[in-house]
Specification:
This protein is of the alpha+beta class. 23% of the residues lie in helices and 20% in strands. It has an eight-stranded mixed sheet with strand order 1-2-3-9-6-11-5-4.
Length: 254
């Protein structure tokens, strides 16, 4: 068993003295295949920490945003049927076709080939793993998107089954342990400062990390990872630093 409890030093951990650091809300895994292990039922999410191999792509991502490519209304979305797939081979074929469509806009621009290849590999592997985790999912909804001004800035739980998410530049998703959440404030639209009990215990996925977040309808007793987008960051000239995100969602089970 390679999965291990996520300690604060396995990703960008909480602020505060090391003696006060606690394990984060997700199970740290060596690969996405570990998401299939029985121990994952005890956590509201899992993650794989990685060191990016595609270099600093911030200016490439900002260029996409400048040309209106992959922003909210222009994001590339692909649906992959799961419940109706007759075999793993058919699912893999459908995934491969959808992955090619996802990266299509990047192929038309001067985007680093290593980044495109990484996105393709991630979408294929993570998509196949999520389908194995949730074989009765109606479909996988895959989206490649630029996150700019439009972000999920409030702490929340996803009101669907699950999401896998990868941030290819900049900071990743922020998350909380359930024992650090005032659920009364969360459920009644309280402010972020009132939802978090201890602001020094906020965990953040790193650039390139693969994060799996269980929504409130994920089967089992432990689900509903509390999370939000990271705060926006700006260049020295005041312009927004955009982020490139891959999302793989399961909205419903059949």
């Amino acid at each position: 068993v390679h999965a291990r409890e996520h300690q604060s030093n396995t990703m960008e951990g909480p602020i505060g003295p090391p003696s006060e650091h606690r394990a984060g809300p997700t199970l740290a895994c060596d690969s996405v295949r570990d998401w299939l292990l029985p121990c994952c039922t005890e956590y509201p999410g899992m993650h794989v920490s990685r060191t990016p191999t595609w270099g600093d792509v911030q200016h490439h991502v900002d260029s996409l945003a400048l040309h209106g490519i992959l922003e909210s209304d222009e994001a590339v979305c692909e649906d992959v049927q799961v419940a109706s797939a007759d075999s793993n081979r058919l699912l893999e074929t459908d995934l491969s076709k959808s992955v090619q469509q996802l990266v299509g806009p990047l192929l038309k621009l001067d985007m680093p080939g290593c980044l495109i290849e990484q996105i393709q590999a991630d979408a294929q592997e993570v998509g196949a793993t999520v389908a194995k985790m949730l074989p009765n999912a109606e479909k996988l909804k895959m989206k490649l998107q630029i996150m700019g001004e439009d972000t999920c800035s409030r702490w929340h739980q996803d009101n669907y089954v699950a999401r896998a998410i990868i941030t290819y530049n900049g900071r990743g998703t922020e998350m909380l342990r359930h024992d650090n959440v005032n659920f009364g404030e969360l459920e009644n639209r309280g402010s972020n400062s009132h939802i978090v009990c201890d602001g020094s215990q906020i965990f953040t996925a790193g650039t390139g990390d693969i994060l799996f977040m269980k929504g409130v309808t994920f089967p089992g007793d432990v689900n509903g990872l509390v999370h939000k987008s990271p705060d926006k960051r700006y260049h020295a000239n005041g312009k927004l630093m955009n982020r490139l995100i891959l999302k793989i969602d399961v909205k419903k089970l059949s």
